[in-house]
Predict the 3D structure of the following.
Amino acid sequence: MGSEDIIKFLTSIQGIGKAKAETIVKSGFNSIEKLKEADIKELSSIKGISEELAKKIKEEAEKQLLRPGGAEAVKKEEGVREKKTEEKAEEKEEKPEEKKEEVAEEVKEEAEEKEVKEEKVEKPEKKKVKPKIKPKLTSELKDALEKRKIRKEKEPTFRRQEWFRYKRLGECWRRPKGLHSKMRKGLKYRPPRVKIGYRGPKLARNLHPSGFEEVMVYRVEDLEKINPERQAARIGGTVGTRKRIEIIRRADELGIKVLNRGEL
């Protein structure tokens, strides 16, 4: 009988719970024969077990063995345990060379299975990334664009007069007015105003950050007037989806950059 079976047997006795049964098994009484042969003093020395309980345990153990097939079942279980221990010992005594060969064969089989799986799984084709269309710029124009970019980063945010006081005004820029306006007069500690000094270089004026000159397009025919080396198309907001697709297709054929092509 295993430890679980003995615990079940002990818990069937009145006055013994699972905790007491576990303490009895841990103290060395892990079979019915040992419980039968044990002295009452040894059992009563276990925590929570009195002499009366010890006598009960002994009596129940004797009854269990006297039942038909009780002693034979115990012997059979002991024989099975001995066989298992012998088999384990034989497995441990196996030659290390045989084990190495078995491991090598398993590794080969796994590698072959992986190769077969890799062959079955088709690799997805990578999408060809088209290079971005760039304008042909002179060295002077490149310098002007860089200067404009640097100046734009340093440029302050221009807000409307008393934008912080009245929520209805918003932050969008309006020229300050009023006879006594401190912002109009340009006094110290007032928000910055839009002035001509904040303008970028003349060469880079009205150009897209990429360097292209923007041309508004409303029809497919408008693309023929565009120079793809210097100019880029911007489709008008009133153009429908069908015509928009036609414009983008034709622009791709002519090699013209569309600034607001979107997901189409």
User: Anything to note?
Assistant: The chain has a mean pLDDT of 80. The longest strand covers residues 213-217.
